[in-house]
From TrEMBL:
Family: Belongs to the nucleotide-sugar transporter family. CMP-Sialate:CMP antiporter (TC 2.A.7.12) subfamily.
Domain of life from the UniProt record: Eukaryota
Protein name: Uncharacterized protein
Keyword Transmembrane attached: yes
Membrane-topology annotation of the record: Multi-pass membrane protein
Keywords: Membrane, Transmembrane, Transmembrane helix
Chief location category: membrane
Compositional bias annotation for Basic and acidic residues: 389-405
Lineage: Eukaryota, Viridiplantae, Streptophyta, Embryophyta, Tracheophyta
Species in which this protein is naturally found: Nepenthes gracilis
Segments of this protein annotated with the region Disordered: 386-405
A single Gene Ontology CC term: Golgi membrane
Length: 405
């Protein structure tokens, strides 16, 4: 037994363990066939994620004027979701043209309606993402870009707990220790990082910042886990069709937020292009690419891998913010990054999975031994039956004549 799969000792076929909670049968079949292409895809996802996630807080910082945003953050989120919807539609059209004869058409009304019913759960992460995208701008008012990225790494621990509760995913003791090291690395970097003598929302800056940090960590963690569950539970559905629903829900939620802002502040705030610059256009493109890449992470890879790859972007963010904006790379930052990388290596090291694999190996060995015993018992029964039949044949013939010869 390995990764929730049981391998037959005779034909070596893999079956899902009855005791494990499966997301979907299609994903289980995919998980049992990890190829070199899948590993190459994971590497490409990590590299792309590091670049996009590293650039995101820098672009947000460049979008500020005198420490404030001249545009509505909700308008950026709406334009980002609209861009992703457009991308999903284009990719769906391309995928539909490449379909083989006899396959169910992707763009038929029946296919879209059925997929919409099956993927209704995607509305939950879409709403949570809409809230989280607004919080990203709020966090920039309290922390520099490198610190924002370090704070976002706290999501890894929350996600691990949610994966254990919602998706029944198991982690070894070494992996939990790696997550604890991650928290230590973040704490080391956070020492004396808050500005002093300023206030926000009537609270001291530390209080307001930590309240936003708590929400900033919890909301996207829930969104990531629900997103992974929703995408993998309908694994046979095209990812571009799933993204169409996810981004469509996100665009709808952000548009409702724009309407609410227009009602509260007046019709002038309804102009979604007001206050935008080249930096905000780059930010919209970056956020859209990052969201599209994340969907591939959640469906074909893992949420933990997605969040750990974001920690690698912290180095790029810290160095770039120091070069562009004059932020100082402190000793705490360097030590924190070092601990984070040790944590990442420990979490994904094969040694962290040895104990679990050994326990699963024992279960598999017990199953094999029980199968062998059952086979031996059946063989003994067959032998006993054959001996009984032979002894019966050796004895006197019941059909011999009763009269003496």
């Amino acid at each position: 037994m390995k990764n929730g799969m049981i391998e037959c000792s005779v034909c070596h076929s893999k079956l899902v363990s009855p005791g494990s909670i499966t997301v979907s049968r299609a994903y289980d079949r995919h998980r049992s066939k990890v190829s070199s292409k899948q590993r190459a895809l994971n590497i490409l996802l990590v590299v792309g994620d590091c670049i996009l996630v590293g650039l995101q807080p820098i672009l947000v910082y460049m979008s500020k004027v005198d420490g404030k945003f001249n545009f509505s953050p909700v308008s950026v989120n709406f334009l980002t979701e609209a861009s992703k919807v457009l991308f999903a539609i284009i990719m769906l059209v391309i995928q539909a043209r490449r379909q083989k004869v006899g396959e169910k058409p992707l763009l038929s009304i029946s296919t879209i309606l059925q997929a919409a019913r099956n993927n209704a759960l995607l509305a939950v992460p879409a709403l949570l993402y809409a809230i989280n995208n607004y919080l990203k701008f709020i966090m920039q008012l309290y922390f520099n870009p490198a610190t924002v990225k370090m704070l976002s790494n706290l999501k890894v621990l929350v996600i691990a707990v949610l994966l254990k509760i919602i998706m029944r995913r198991r982690f070894s003791i070494i992996q939990w220790e790696a997550l604890a090291l991650l928290l230590i690395g973040i704490s080391v970097n956070q020492m004396r990082s808050l500005p002093e003598g300023t206030t926000a929302l009537g609270f001291p800056v530390a209080t307001g910042a930590y309240i936003y940090t708590l929400i900033f960590v919890t909301v996207p963690s829930l969104a990531s886990v629900f997103n992974e569950y929703a995408l993998k539970s309908q694994y046979d559905t095209s990812i571009y069709l799933q993204n169409l629903f996810l981004y469509g829900y996100g665009a709808a939620f952000n548009f409702l937020a724009i309407l609410g802002t227009a009602i509260y502040k007046g019709p002038s705030s309804f102009d979604i292009l007001q206050g935008h610059s080249k930096a905000t256009m780059l930010l919209i493109f970056n956020n859209a690419a990052q969201g599209i890449l994340s969907s591939f992470f959640f469906k074909y890879a893992d949420t933990i891998l997605k969040k750990y790859s974001s920690t690698v972007a912290t180095i790029f963010t810290g160095i770039a913010s120091a070069a562009l904006f004059g932020h100082t790379l402190t000793v705490n930052f360097i030590l924190g990054i070092s601990i984070v990388f040790i944590s990442m290596h420990q979490f994904f090291s094969p040694l962290s999975k040895v104990k679990e694999e050994q326990e699963n190996g024992k279960v598999e060995l017990m199953n094999v031994q029980s199968n062998l015993r059952s086979k031996d018992d059946s063989f003994v029964d067959m032998t006993a039956g054959a001996n009984e039949e032979a002894s019966h044949r050796v004895g006197s013939d019941d059909r011999q004549p009763l009269l003496p010869r």
